[in-house]
Write a structure and sequence with these properties.
single chain, about 325 residues, alpha+beta, Arc Repressor Mutant, subunit A, 3-stranded antiparallel beta sheet
Amino acid sequence: MATRSALSFAPDLDLTRDALASSTLNHGLMVLGERWTMAVMMGAFTGVNRFDDWQNRLGIPRPTLASRLKALVALGLMRQRAYQERPRRMAYHLTAAGMKLYPHVLMVWVWERRWGSRRSQLPDTLLHKPCGHHFQPTLTCTACGDKVGIHDLQLTLKTNRRLLALAAQSRRAARLASSSAASMGLRVDRWSLMIVTAVVLGCHYFDQLLHVLGIASSVLARRLNSMVEAGLLLAQPDTHDARRTVYRLTPSSRDLFGYLVCFSTWAAREYLQEPSSIRPVHKTCGQAFIPRVACSACGEAVHPWDVAIAPSGHSNP
């Protein structure tokens, strides 16, 4: 087992490689990291439940939308219900299992509102009905209630051998790098999230990232270049060797932190029922970090049934 701060320049590359492969983030992205999936889920949480409404709002190809909805139904995150018999038309509604994705969907909303290119397609303002105030979803620690950011955690890596074996099987079946489109419908895709996580774990050089991610060098080079162009990574010459490039997080990629920890927690608890290999501890309270998304106005945990989409002109009482 190895412990390190959130930004370290001396990672154990073999341990980091196995921890990334066996992380619940990686395995969760294998089932929910396809292009448009998160955009479809976001639509469901904001009241979209009919095929044509998703298609019109997102501009998603109809066969792709049909495939994503079918997959979400198969995962038990949505259910179908007929709302018209002739011709037969189906509505899609979130199940109780699907509702448990709400914290990480809120973190997606925060990131997209701040950094995304599709802001106009998202709710402008969220209203927390119990306190009656507009709010920003805020990531907090379940144990102590404090607001938490990326630098407030200590990360411990412990390879999950069962998930590592499953990852090896998945790589043989279909290379993770084959997906090149945006899973959030924006600039952030499945591989971008894995690269950001590798940088968080201290891998700042091309050769380090190549080792821990296990993808072709040409694919990694293209990914890194596109992430730098999109503002997700900062590329700087190494002060000790100008021939080498150091990759660092930017404000937009640091803001993906809330999404990453909420999604990893969901995958560990609800999808895999397995502990992740990347285990955060909240430095302030010393407890294993379990994310809790709270209302910025009252500090209470936010539930989907307690949130309304408010017009931008709404006034707080």
